[in-house]
């Protein structure tokens, strides 16, 4: 019997996101149609839509789908925004962010993740993304200022070098 990922995505949206006040139809549609299983190793695919965090290696992974949706929902992303996404991992959250903003710079400091992001971005033909392989703690000053800095990886300290890259008018760090 084949696992029905489309049905699992629909159930995740209806049973995890909607009851928790994720009501933006664009965000709901992205979560309903973006195949998270394509961003995960084979051994993790069937757990793509469970209400659990997903560990990709010993120190990094994706939050629960609800928590990802809450962060994105609360970021209040506008289609003209320029976003720095720190910690792209395999690109799942990056693709969602890229679908909502004008320009996305993805920082990833692990080579195996960077190559997976590149592959996923290419396969989905996403054009508004730049991928940077660099340490997280300095951000990416070359493209600043950013309307949103979306931190999707554990960092020990939020350095002033990152804070200074947020637009002074209305920028925010999520």
Overview in brief:
The chain is an alpha/beta fold.
Helix residue percentage: 25-40%
Quick one: overall form? globular
N- to C-terminal separation?
A: 41 Å
Strand elements, count: 7
- Largest beta sheet: strand ordering: 5-4-3-6-7
Largest sheet: 5 strands, parallel
- Order of helices and strands, N to C? HHEEHEHEHEEHE
By secondary-structure content and strand pairing, the structural class works out as alpha/beta
On the 0 to 100 scale, the average pLDDT is: 94
Whole-number radius of gyration? Answer: 16 Å
What amount of the residues lies in strands? Answer: 5-15%
- Poorly predicted spans: none
Number of helices: 6
- Assembly status: single chain
Architecture overview:
With 174 residues, the chain is α/β, with parallel strands linked by helices. The protein has six helices and seven strands; from the N terminus they run H-H-E-E-H-E-H-E-H-E-E-H-E. The strands form two sheets. A five-stranded parallel sheet has the order 5-4-3-6-7, covered by helices on one side. A two-stranded antiparallel sheet has the order 1-2. Helix 4 links the parallel strand 3 and strand 4 (103-108). Helix 1 (5-17) packs antiparallel against helix 2 (25-33). The chain is globular, with a radius of gyration of 16 Å.
Comma- or semicolon-separated keywords:
174 residues, alpha/beta, 34% helix, 6 helices, two-stranded antiparallel sheet
């Amino acid at each position: 019997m084949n696992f029905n990922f489309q049905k699992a995505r629909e159930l995740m949206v209806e049973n995890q996101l909607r009851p928790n006040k994720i009501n933006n139809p664009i965000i709901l549609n992205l979560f309903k149609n973006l195949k998270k299983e394509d961003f995960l190793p084979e051994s993790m695919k069937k757990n793509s839509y469970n209400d659990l965090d997903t560990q990709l290696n010993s120190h990094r992974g994706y939050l629960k789908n609800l928590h990802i949706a809450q962060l994105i929902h609360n970021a209040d992303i506008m289609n003209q925004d320029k976003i720095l996404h720190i910690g792209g991992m395999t690109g799942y959250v990056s693709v969602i962010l890229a679908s909502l903003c004008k320009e996305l710079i993805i920082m990833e400091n692990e080579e195996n993740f960077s190559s997976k992001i590149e592959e996923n971005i290419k396969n989905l033909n996403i054009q508004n993304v730049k991928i940077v392989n660099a340490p997280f703690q300095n951000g990416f000053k070359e493209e600043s200022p950013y309307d949103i800095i979306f931190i999707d990886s554990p960092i020990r300290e939020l350095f002033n070098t990152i804070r200074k890259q947020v637009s002074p008018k209305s920028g925010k760090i999520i």
